[in-house]
């Protein structure tokens, strides 16, 4: 339980994009007594007040209850994006592993569970207006990522019904970027051989303008701050997290000083499907289909109930991320390690 010096927090997926930002933030918070980071590979990184435990949530032999006993909150961030060609593998980590986390929270009587959901959990929605947290969360069924995020929303519905004493918070962030995540995200979505230095304005005389390709972005550190605020307060339920403005071909064209050129959805999807089928591109055409249908999110609830506001605009986020791509930036953890190709 809460000690005289602050709260004891467990973070799963603590070495990933959000995990590294959140662990750093919590380790600097005087209201936090200790942080236990769970990850498949224990890093050399040693932030203050932090201990590491190596484990794989996909393993049926993993026992989490003992690790959770006596802590004040569990923040569940662990997630596997790959392999997209074998969704049974990601299902074992993302869905079955998450359910193990939820069950252990209940068994250890942890009072607070903060879960990393996503904009990807939402059903198809509008691009011309923003929706709040009441928008249906049935995902896009053809994309494993969205299917898994939506399934866990239903699992949490049941969890909250059966364990009303647990304060459950569901974060639904937009696409998360920071300079230090550039190498990891290039490998996850573009492939390990995609050269980061290619992200240069002078190499892009035009940008494809694909109908429906209008999304939101957020700096990972700003998302981590929302998690920290949720841990310190009494809020419960779902929270949309995104920065302004929405990202589309017009905004990207201004950033790259490139002219948007209309490209039919079918042509773009065919190219992605071909590259994915040849295993040249890790991002699947099913995820592309989902992205074109994601709604824009209204973040009023996070502002009013958490007191949260992003410090960086979406434009600043993307500019920072692109600099990280060009220089191969990363963090001192296995998933985030910097690597420059080309």
Structural class: alpha/beta
Number of helices: 11
- Low-confidence segments, given as residue ranges, are none
Order of helices and strands: EHEEHEHEEHEEHEEHEHEHHEHH
| Count of beta strands | 13
Percentage of helical residues? Answer: 25-40%
The first-to-last residue Cα distance is 50 Å
Question: How would you sum up this structure, described in words?
Answer:
Helix 1 (17-27) links the parallel strand 1 and strand 2 (32-39). The strands form four sheets. This protein has a seven-stranded parallel beta sheet with strand order 3-2-1-4-5-7-11, sandwiched between helices. Strands 6-13 form a two-stranded parallel sheet. The model has no long low-confidence stretch (mean pLDDT 92). The chain is built from eleven helices and 13 strands. The chain has helices spanning 17-27, 65-68, 87-107, 144-162, 182-190, 220-232, 249-256, 265-277, 285-291, 300-306, 314-327; strands at residues 7-12, 32-39, 50-54, 73-76, 112-116, 130-131, 167-173, 175-177, 206-209, 217-219, 237-241, 259-262, 296-297. With 342 residues, the protein is of the alpha/beta class. Helix content is 37%, strand content 17%.
């Amino acid at each position: 339980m809460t000690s005289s010096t602050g709260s004891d927090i467990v973070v799963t997926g603590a070495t990933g994009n959000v995990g590294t930002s959140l662990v750093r933030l919590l380790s600097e918070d005087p209201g936090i007594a200790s942080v236990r980071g769970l990850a498949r590979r224990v890093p050399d990184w040693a932030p203050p007040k932090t201990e590491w435990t190596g484990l794989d949530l996909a393993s049926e032999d993993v026992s989490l209850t003992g690790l959770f006993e006596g802590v004040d909150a569990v923040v569940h961030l662990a997630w596997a994006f790959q392999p997209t060609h074998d969704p049974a593998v990601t299902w074992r980590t993302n869905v079955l592993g998450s359910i193990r986390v939820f069950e252990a929270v209940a068994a250890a009587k942890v009072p607070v569970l903060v879960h990393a959901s996503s904009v990807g959990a939402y059903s198809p929605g509008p691009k011309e207006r923003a929706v709040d947290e009441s928008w249906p969360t049935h995902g896009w069924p053809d994309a494993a990522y969205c299917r898994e995020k939506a399934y866990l929303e239903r699992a949490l519905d049941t969890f909250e019904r059966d364990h009303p004493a647990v304060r459950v918070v569901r974060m639904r962030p937009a696409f998360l970027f920071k300079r230090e995540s550039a190498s990891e995200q290039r490998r996850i979505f573009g492939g390990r051989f995609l050269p980061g230095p290619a992200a240069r304005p002078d190499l892009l005389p035009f940008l494809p303008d694909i109908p429906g390709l209008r999304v939101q972005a957020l700096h990972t550190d700003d998302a981590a701050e929302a998690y920290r605020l949720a841990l310190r307060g009494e809020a419960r339920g779902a929270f949309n997290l995104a920065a302004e403005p929405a990202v589309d071909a017009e905004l990207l064209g201004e950033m790259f000083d490139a002219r948007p050129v209309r490209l039919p959805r079918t042509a773009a999807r065919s190219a992605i499907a071909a590259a994915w089928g040849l295993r040249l591109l890790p991002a699947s055409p099913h995820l592309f289909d989902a992205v074109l249908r994601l709604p824009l999110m209204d973040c009023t609830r996070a502002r009013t109930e958490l007191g949260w506001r992003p410090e960086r605009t979406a434009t600043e986020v993307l500019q920072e991320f692109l600099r990280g791509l060009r220089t191969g930036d990363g963090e001192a953890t296995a998933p985030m390690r910097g690597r420059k190709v080309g």
